[in-house]
Amino acid sequence: MSAIQTERLTIVPFTHDLALAALRDRSEMARLLAATVPDEWPGPEMASYLPTYARQVEREPERGDWVRLALRSADRALIGDMGFHGPPDAAGTVEIGYRTAPAYRRQGYTSEGVRGLIAWAFGRPEVRRIVAECAPDNAGSIRILEGAGLRRVGTRGRMLRWELRRPGE
Question: Which CATH number fits domain 4-165: 3.40.630.30, 2.130.10.10, 3.40.50.300, 3.40.1440.60?
């Protein structure tokens, strides 16, 4: 498991040790990451998912390569979580997701991270398609997905559905 490096970000695997530290001891998590962890991390979705995720990554350590934490390289600040909902399914599809802490929004970090994640995913032969969902009123996420080359392909319930196929497919 290696980090994904972009111009301003280091996107690291969210390992089992990090998940346990996130659940138990924020200072231990900061030590393991060699980073500062803002008070607003994790957001509500990740906070509710952490116990389940810790069990999943304990059983399937490779999941940590797909679920990641984004650090601002300049000062090693944890700015959010971004990655995929897990390894590719049998059809080679992964779902991308991201949450950036409020203090780091509207600075291009999420767009940069999403582009880095897409390049990383398509560098793996088993990934053939990347999908995403977002609410129709989430203008920021819509801009990020469009800017990364995903195209809107429909809806599921109240959510917009997006996809990007491997180049040449």
Answer: 3.40.630.30
